């Protein structure tokens, strides 16, 4: 019986805000992988990328996912690139229903444009083009990893959380107990 919900998806699809709302509705605690990484590293993710590189970040991510995946009755909010390493997905799958949140590239750009500098993978000349390229590359990873997929482009946070709950109700093997 799986008791966690793990949210995956590209940056700007709403994982953090939806995760908080979902946790409230399910009466569970949120575990944010990126926050765990920042605490362990003692610096923001943008600084980890700048100072240590993406490989060092991904190593910290693997460790954080390993620990979070062991927990019970949590909403686990994953970073956008968590799907790039199958060990992360294998660990999450043991005790989590994996929900992939999607959104259109235009929606993503609109949602994250105010976070300039905090998104190291978008520190490029043409963020819109880069978003489309990254999304195209990652789409099969998200698709293979997800038990449930929800497009958040036209939904508010509450609607997305309710949609996840509705889909979990029909997901065989998910433990709703408090």
User: What best-fitting shape do the alpha-carbon axes yield?
Assistant: globular
What is the CATH architecture annotation?
A: 3-Layer(aba) Sandwich
Report the major sheet: 5 strands, parallel
What is the number of beta strands? 5
C-alpha end-to-end distance:
14 Å
CATH superfamily descriptor: P-loop containing nucleotide triphosphate hydrolases
- Radius of gyration in whole Å, from Cα? 15 Å
- pLDDT < 50 runs, ≥5 residues: none
Protein structure class: alpha/beta
Present the secondary structure layout:
Layout: E1 4-9, H1 15-26, E2 29-32, H2 33-41, H3 45-52, H4 54-70, E3 74-77, H5 86-95, E4 96-102, H6 105-112, H7 127-145, E5 148-151, H8 157-169
Parallel strand pairs: 1-3, 1-4, 2-3, 4-5
What does the model show?
- The chain is an alpha/beta fold.
- It has a single domain, classed as P-loop containing nucleotide triphosphate hydrolases (Rossmann fold, 3-Layer(aba) Sandwich), CATH 3.40.50.300.
- The chain is 54% helix and 14% strand.
- It has eight helices and five strands.
- The protein has helices spanning 15-26, 33-41, 45-52, 54-70, 86-95, 105-112, 127-145, 157-169; strands at 4-9, 29-32, 74-77, 96-102, 148-151.
- Strands 2-3-1-4-5 form a five-stranded parallel β-sheet, sandwiched between helices.
- Helix 2 (33-41) crosses helix 4 (54-70).
- It is globular, with a radius of gyration of 15 Å.
- The model has no long low-confidence stretch (mean pLDDT 92).
């Amino acid at each position: 019986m799986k008791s966690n919900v793990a949210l995956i998806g590209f940056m700007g699809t709403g994982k953090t805000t939806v995760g908080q709302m979902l946790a409230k509705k399910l009466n569970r605690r949120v575990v944010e992988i990126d926050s765990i990484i920042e605490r362990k590293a003692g610096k923001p993710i943008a600084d980890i990328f700048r100072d240590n590189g993406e490989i060092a970040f991904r190593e910290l991510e693997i460790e954080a996912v390993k620990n979070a995946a062991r927990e019970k009755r949590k909403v686990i909010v994953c970073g956008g690139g968590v799907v790039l390493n199958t060990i992360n997905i294998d660990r999450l799958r043991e005790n989590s229903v994996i929900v992939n949140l999607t959104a259109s590239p235009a929606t993503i750009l609109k949602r994250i444009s105010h976070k300039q500098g905090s998104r190291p993978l978008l520190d490029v000349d043409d963020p819109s083009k880069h978003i489309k390229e990254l999304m195209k590359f990652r789409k099969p990873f998200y698709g293979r990893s997800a038990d449930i997929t929800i497009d958040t482009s036209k939904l508010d946070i509450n609607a997305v959380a309710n949609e996840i709950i509705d889909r979990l109700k029909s997901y065989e093997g998910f433990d709703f107990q408090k």
